[in-house]
Write a structure and sequence with these properties.
One of its GO terms (cellular component) is cytoplasm. Helices cover 60% and strands 0% of the residues. It has 82 residues and is mainly α. Helix 1 packs antiparallel against helix 2. The two termini are 25 Å apart.
């Protein structure tokens, strides 16, 4: 098990991009966040085939980033933050 010291800073830089006006930027930010959290699980000692409920839920929010309605997009971004 190894600690991942700059996780919070990296997440702090990615999450605001989930509200970007361009859908592709929002999708890429969520994918990068998913990858970052997957790396964190490996650092924590979990096996490659370990399935995490939070990551699965995060992946499921990807469709919500296609919304142009600001209320739905806000709801999706709030879910990402949780």
């Amino acid at each position: 098990m190894v600690s991942f010291h700059n996780l919070g800073a990296l997440i702090g830089r990615l999450v605001p991009r989930c509200t970007d006006p361009l859908v592709t930027v929002r999708q890429n930010a969520l994918e990068a966040l998913y990858t970052l959290l997957s790396i964190q699980l490996r650092y924590a000692g979990f096996a490659l085939d370990h399935t995490d409920e939070s990551l699965s839920r995060l992946k499921g929010l990807q469709n919500g980033l296609h919304q142009s309605d600001s209320k739905l997009l806000f709801h999706t971004c709030s879910e990402i933050g949780q």
